[in-house]
Amino acid sequence: MRRLTTLLAGLLLLAGCGLGSSNEVAAPTGPVSTVAETNEFNPVDVMYLQMAVPHHRAGLEIVKLAKDRQVRTDVKNLAAAIEVTQLSEVDSMLKWLHDWKQPETGGDHPDLHAGHGGDHSTSPEAIAAVAASDSGEFEKAFLNLLIAHQHNAVEMAKMEKEGGVNPQTKALAERIFQSRTGQISQMLGYLE
Predict the structure, then answer these.
(1) What are the two backbone dihedrals, phi and then psi, of residue 105, each rounded to the nearest 5 degrees?
(2) pTM for the complete prediction?
């Protein structure tokens, strides 16, 4: 069963984490990345990765909530695919920061996020509130929080796409922009 779940999560990852209305997994349209890695970067690239790593980690906390809760299969499968994707993305982001000899975080300065639209993180309190919701309200609360969280990922990706210079970081931001936009649309459909 674990192999089937892993296989399904991998297929969803390759398909951009999107399931059609018929619940069929779309075939990938090309290679995951054709971008040659370079060590050229600017402060926007660094700031994006430093913001995205904790954001992804909060996302991992959110999607893990669906593992042991009563949610429909489509929601559980999406959460599993998001987990696989975001774990891989965190590994890549940490590698790039390490290669560039940059710290994992930018620090906790009050005005740190002012220049890029504010703090895009999901609070531990918001995650705890969803975790504490009763079974009848959990799926709706989970989807609403994950939609908001993925919306923040889209906003952060826009910043990198517009101001970054590192090709692999910009390519990651484009993939995040596309996949999270698709996930949001999919989850909004679950709420109807």
Answers:
(1) -125, 155
(2) 0.77
- Report the CATH fold assignment for 2-12+42-105+118-191: Ferritin (1.20.1260)
Q: What are the extents of the domains in the chain? A: 2-12+42-105+118-191
- What is the chain's pLDDT, residue by residue, as a tens digit (192 residues)? 444 344 334 434 334 444 344 343 333 444 445 566 788 999 999 999 999 999 999 999 999 999 999 999 999 999 999 999 999 999 999 999 999 999 998 865 444 444 444 456 899 999 999 999 999 999 999 999 999 999 999 999 999 999 999 999 999 999 999 999 999 999 999 998
Structural tokens at position 87: 């774990």
| 187 phi/psi in degrees, rounded to 5 | -70, -35
